[in-house]
Each structure stands twice: as C-alpha cells, then as structure tokens.
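Translate structure to sequence.
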C-alpha cells in the first residue's frame, strides 16, 4: 500500500507544480470513489490532510465523506 501513497503524493505534486485549478467543483451524479473503494480505504487516514485534500476530494468522495 506504500506504492499507492507514493502515487498519490506524486500526483499531488504534479498538480501543484503545473497549476491545478482551485475552483470548487460541483458534484453532478452519484457519490463514488473514482479511484476505487479499495484504494480509497487504504488512504482514508489522509482525507483531512491539507496535502491530499484536493486529490482525495476528487478521487475518494464517498470514503472521505465529501458528498
């Protein structure tokens, strides 16, 4: 599971470096874990982390309780 954490960190870094938008998104459709429930369960402890919040809000909505 350390691999998944590294992937999330790398993705968060790329988004930060290349100017990811900070505009809030409006959810349309069902509340799901886009990254998959198993992956999101493994990173659920980071749902409130400032470092991962944006990424997890997009990828792990259901597990992190964002919807």
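Result:
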């Amino acid at each position: 599971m350390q691999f998944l954490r590294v992937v999330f960190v790398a993705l968060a870094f790329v988004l930060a470096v290349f100017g990811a938008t900070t505009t809030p998104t409006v959810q349309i459709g069902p509340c799901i874990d886009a990254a998959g429930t198993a992956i999101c369960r493994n990173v659920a402890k980071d749902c409130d982390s400032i470092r991962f919040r944006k990424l997890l809000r997009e990828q792990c909505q259901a597990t992190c309780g964002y919807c």
